[in-house]
Amino acid sequence: MIKYLIQGGAPLRGTVNISGAKNAAVAILPATLLVDGVCRLENVPDISDVRLLLDILRDMGSGIRRLTPNCIEIDNTRVRNIVAPIELVRRFRASYYLIGAELGRFGSAKVALPGGCNFSDRPIDQHLKGLRAMGADVALRSGYVIADAHGHLAGGHIFPDMVSVGATINLILAAVLAEGTTVIENCAKEPHVVDLASFLSAMGARISGAGTDTIRIRGVASLHGGSYTIIPDQIEAGTYMAAAAATGGDVLVCNIIPRHLECITAKLREMGVEVTEYDDAVRVRRTAPLSPTNVKTLPYPGFPTDMQPQFAACMALARGTSVIVEGIYDTRFGYTGELNRMGADIQVDTKVAIINGVKELHGCSVRAFDLRAGAAMVIAGLCAADTTTVEDAHYIERGYEDIIGKLRALGANIKRIETPDGTRARKVG
Fold first, then answer.
1. Domain co-membership, 249 together with 332
2. Rounded distance, CA 168 to CA 190, Å?
3. Is the pLDDT of residue 50 over 90?
4. Are residues 207 and 266 in the same domain?
5. Mean pLDDT throughout 323-345?
6. Phi, psi (rounded to 5 degrees) for 400
7. For the chain, what is the radius of gyration of the CA atoms?
8. 212 and 241 assigned to the same domain
9. CA 30 centroid distance within chain
């Protein structure tokens, strides 16, 4: 068991460097299965989801060398189409990208239904619909997705019923080695979707339209090896920006792409926070009380759903009433009860949260229900009087590299406590 102990009340000040994008890395790593050669990936975040995925690839026969903590070399020339260990696959959501990658490389796939953060039912029906349109027989049996392309997938025209990041990525993976041309409509436009397409194109894929509604993929016979640098993490950057604003701090957030953060920057400015943009950095500084604002989460370039819990922690301390409308998932407000335990005033009605700002939050024991909810608990703990204990902090480490070290460098009083296998607690950092 992992938990964080936070003594709140200190504004964050200093510089933080943002790691590679989690959501890009967990798509690009399965994509390496499609490459006939050696891939060298740089700016890979050292997080638990990445480590799990590397373990799965090793089990499949991938040759993996970690050259530095954030640079990995992967050789998939001897990889085998085997069933990944269910105990690993069930521990994170992005394991479903193995379906498209295995189908593309081997013409068949058997992948356990994924796990990960459980804040909402996230069906994969749009993934399967698209794969069937490319000629695959797909079935769900005994907790597994079983797919067979009977040799090779064929290009097709696919129109998902809804915008889905996961489906867009899976269909790209399946299509790059398919015979003919695949056209995917109603595509997700998130930065990590574009990053996956950029990686595959660097390896020889023929992809156009990534970042727009329509992606066109002309299948190629093979992909070659090469080097690629993963983009910075939009959500990690936004989280530190929100933390700086919530604590009344002054933080320079470095190694970012500012245009990926425009919607976050706009909302912070609405709340009275000073945000200064540079070529690859933003400075977030707050010197006055937070003003309320309203947020509706939408697909990119709209406000990201993965930032709404962190903003809820900020809004809990604003002077006035804020409203969050969750436009992506049906249920993503489970964490608000934990904020209310700390003294927040949040009422939830299905997909709408009404947040009446309070003067202060109070430390107590709270749970990290999922990755981003856990980040919200950390932000609240940094602002709260007294000590906050964040239980189930392993969720947080799925997506934030060295969060303890980065926050401590900014002046936070935070400790990580791990109790392995029920033994005596051990403080780290």
1. yes
2. 10
3. yes
4. no
5. 95
6. -125, 110
7. 21
8. no
9. 15
- Amino acid 1 reads M
Q: What's the rounded Cα separation, in Å, for the pair 158 and 155? A: 9
Has 117 been annotated as catalytic? yes
Structural domains of the chain, count: 2
Size of the chain in residues:
429
Kindly state whether residues 246 and 225 are assigned to the same domain. no
pTM of the predicted structure, to 2 decimals: 0.95
Domain end call among 184, 207, 229: 229
- Nearest CA among 386, 403, 387 for reference residue 395: 403
Q: How far apart are CA 272 and CA 227, in angstroms?
A: 42
Q: Which helix (H) or strand (E) holds 87?
A: helix 86-89
**What is 165-204 written as a DSSP string?**
HHHHHHHHHHHTTSBSEEEE-S----HHHHHHHHHHHHTT
Q: Return d(Cα 310, Cα 376) in angstroms, integer.
A: 4
Q: Which residue has the higher pLDDT, 117 or 83?
A: 83
Contacts of residue 87, defined as CB under 8 A and 6 or more positions apart, other chains included, come to none
- Reduced to 3 states (helix: H, G, I; strand: E, B; else coil), residue 84 is coil
Same structural domain, 208 and 163: yes
- The rounded distance, in Å, linking the Cα atoms of 219 and 141 is 30
Domain of 333 in residue numbering reads as 2-18+232-428
Query: What type of residue is 156?
Result: G
Which of 195, 213, 229 is the endpoint of a domain? 229
Active-site choice (117, 187, 263, 383): 117
* 8 Å CB contact between 78 and 58: no
Residues contacting residue 266 through CB under 8 Å, at least 6 positions apart = none
Tokens, residue 131: 């794969």
Q: Are residues 199 and 216 in the same domain?
A: yes
Among 188, 192, 222, 190, which Cα is nearest to 206's?
222
pLDDT at 30 over 60: yes
pLDDT digits (tens, 9 = 90+) for 193-237: 999 999 999 999 999 999 999 999 999 999 999 999 999 999 999
Q: Any idea what the CATH number is for the domain that residue 133 is in?
A: 3.65.10.10
* Tens of pLDDT, residues 231-277: 999 999 999 999 999 999 999 999 999 999 999 999 999 999 999 99
